[in-house]
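I have been asked to look over a protein record a colleague put together. What it holds is a sequence and that sequence's fold in token form. Please read both lines and tell me whether the tokens look consistent with the sequence. I do not need a full report, just your reasoning and any doubts. This is what I was given:
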Amino acid sequence: MPPSWQSARSRRLPRTGETVSSGGGRPARAPSGHADAMSSIDLEDLTKEYGSTRAVDRLTCTVEPGRVTGFLGPNGAGKSTTMRLVLGLDHPTSGTATIGGRPYATLREPLRTVGALLDAQAAHGSRTARDHLRFLAVSNRIPARRVDEVLEETGLAAVARRRIRTFSLGMRQRLGIAAALLGDPPVLILDEPVNGLDPEGIVWIRDLLRRLAREGRTVLVSSHLMNETAVLADHLVVLGRGRLLADVPTQDFIEQHSPPRARVRTDDPARLRATLLAEGYTVQEDDGRWVVKGARAGEVGAVAAREGIPLLELTDERASLEQAYFALTADEAEYTAAAPASSTVPQEA
């Protein structure tokens, strides 16, 4: 079953050893998806070449359960290829990609193990939303009641019998997420899940993914939206030209790529500036405040206290995720726009 049709989960994980109905009255083992290695995504020396182009270059990392992992990188960095390799849609040139220790292709009922949304446009436009999910449920022995449950959770219950070709991009995105929730699995992989969603939908998917991670599931989210990733992701995996650039908690990533900077305000600015310059700091004025490069707020405060300079405001100024990301990937972008040619204003004779 091509995983661009998806799966994931909307309620708690079954407890260890608990059984769930697989349809037809037959019990099945609960998904092995608690917060342990059985639900991690493991990449080991993963490499994919297309002719002379190496799209993924010996990538080794583990996407762990219990947190939302943001998957970042410029266009052409290898993110989509990596997800396709994980989901068995492409074969690696070398190395391995496994989910819970197993290749995707060996999963008997994949929607019960991993839910994925790679392309919201993949659903057949002539089917209704409900029929699309019913076909997926039957193919993976998922109880029919789950179809109505995920339609309700994704806000599509009222349009369940409409044909998919009449859906907006945001509605198709919600349908893809519903399909990803259908099998209630321990692993979720989403590529740009907020595309087409309105602000309410963005808040909804953010809360949903956080809840899934809190339940012990593995959540991998690829996105180009830095502000949203900063709010959502606990951990980051960053690629550049197919290589691993960072595998680190989000706040640590920002700290590592944020040069020290403090912002300070005083009623004796000239004296403070002279003192800081004498200490070797770079000082710039910004809207009535001094921005001190190369210093933390504590260091500036200590200098001011020693010299008896009263401060009215003192804070550390940290980079945003977007600024930190660009600091790391500036030389890794495969596709960059050329700088506009400078225009010359014609002179009057």
Notes: The longest strand covers residues 53-63.
